[in-house]
Amino acid sequence: MTDAFLRFMASDQGRALRIAAGAGLVAWGLSARRSTGGKVTALAGLAPLIAGLTDRCVLPAPTT
Fold this sequence. Notes:
By secondary structure, this protein is mainly α. The chain has 3 helices and no strands. It starts with a helix and ends in an 11-residue tail after the last helix. 11% of the residues are buried. The model has no long low-confidence stretch (mean pLDDT 89).
């Protein structure tokens, strides 16, 4: 991964992107909740949503 991408993900804009992506995945998964794939998608969307809401990023920020 490039330093520019890691810096972006650690920024406020990256946090907003994680929240939006997570919320989108949860919404998409809930719209198809009758299927196993929908349930898995909704659960998977919780990871970026919670990471963004708590301002945590699983990708390390560049050290330089």
